[in-house]
Amino acid sequence: MAGTGGVDYAAGSFRDRGARVFHAGGRVLRALSATALSDWRSIAQRPFFAHLQSRGDVVPTREVPPQEQAALRAPPWAAAVLEHPPVPFWSYPYEWCFGMLRDAALLHLRILHAALPEGVILKDASPYNVQFQGFRPLFIDIGSFTPHRADQPWTAYRQFCELMLVPLFLQAYRGIDLQVVLRGELEGLRIDQASRWFSGRDWLRPGVVAHVVLHGWLQRYAQRGTERTADTLQASGFTVALIQRNVERLRRLVERLRWQPRRTTWTDYDAAQPHVQLDRDTKAEFVRRVCAARHRKLVWDLGSNRGQYARIAAEFADTVVAMDQDHGCVELLYRDLQRRGPDNILPLRIDLANPSPALGWRGRERLRLEDRGRPELTLCLGLIHHLVIGANLPLDEVVDWFGDLTRELVLEFPCKSDPLVQRLLRNKADQYDDYSLEALESSLRPRFDVVERVRLPSGARVLLHAVAKE
Amino acid sequence: MAPLLAYFDPGAGSLLMQALLGGIGGVVVLVRYLYTCVRLRCASGPGSTESSGC
């Protein structure tokens, strides 16, 4: 908290000086400047805002009474403090699948569509203002709502294109994984450079010429001029109807964007592998027994594939974070969750050999994966051989990572005789002397007690339930 | 009401693009905008440092 006057500010909340998030006693609070407070009070009373809250589009918010504020260590400049319920598990756009980013973009457009007729706009258009509760997107940045005069343009249009529309185009039209783009550029792809990612043929695709090519060209052209473009536009007769028309067109465009994941080894994993099918029921029963033993707040399912075991865990936990490195699997799981629930599984695209690091200003703006909440139980099914043999991670280091991460672990260990392990080894030198059940148990021993082990019917795989030593 | 200013640069080109995307009404705004720019540039002269907004 150095340099913050003792206020525990949220690491990513510093850009908008008038509405900063801070924490006190586990509570999520937002300090408002006098101007932001005046905006908030005016906006909170409008019908569109109540409507968005009743739909669950916008985070529930209450103004903390002044007599409570003294105990909260609020910043001295705060004219008022708002309180929001905490998000179960924080995620970032570079971990979302295509459908999640698309839904975040549509949520922005839905909010604008509702707010503009009542003289309110969003001052920014960042997907970081959205968090997912299970598969439901939730707009969390109350400070982004601001009064809007009918002759003012939408200042956040460029941000909308750079952080949402262009990455969606790249995924839908070019098959370039949006996570790669967004993790590399936290502010998105600069619009004056974005057209270089598209081929001439893509110019025929809906939206590319207008929102990427022409937009980029205008941005390069207009950069040569001086400031006050907004003032001159206002004087030239700009009206809110132009924004509304643009928002409506963008909504139709984004709704039509489609990305169909290719069928991969992972998307068909269960159906394609006879021995995996053979083991499935025993594995499900084992996972159910461990999960049902007690209620847990947070469970991670690593290498979740299509979420078969995350679904079992979700019956007994508040939140399950289902992580897989295969974008197609995450996308299919997200669609499946939207169709038939449950609503407490958060699907994320994570490569565990290269998990999300701390990013942004001072490496604190976006938290590393492990710093956003440690799971009480971690499922690691059908994964360890990919980490050790596929990604060359030393087995004892993987176990050490589990030791730092989780209190309980359910781990499936495929022995070297397993057909899928053999497949991983077929074109590689077998340098993996550390890859054995004995080596695994020996690595677990200093930090975990193995309380149950079961050999699966295929004969080449063992399931372990390990509990961290006190 | 204060002018709408974000904590980031909205981009002059992006502001103009919105007029273009607004259909016929937007094109009229853009033509007026360009006319204002030309008029201000002529009025300010080649050596002027005053910002024209264009």
UniProtKB/TrEMBL annotation, chain A:
<keyword id="KW-0808">Transferase</keyword>
<keyword id="KW-0489">Methyltransferase</keyword>
<dbReference type="GO" id="GO:0008168">
    <property type="term" value="F:methyltransferase activity"/>
</dbReference>
<protein>
    <submittedName>
        <fullName>Methyltransferase</fullName>
    </submittedName>
</protein>
<dbReference type="GO" id="GO:0032259">
    <property type="term" value="P:methylation"/>
</dbReference>
<dbReference type="InterPro" id="IPR029063">
    <property type="entry name" value="SAM-dependent_MTases_sf"/>
</dbReference>
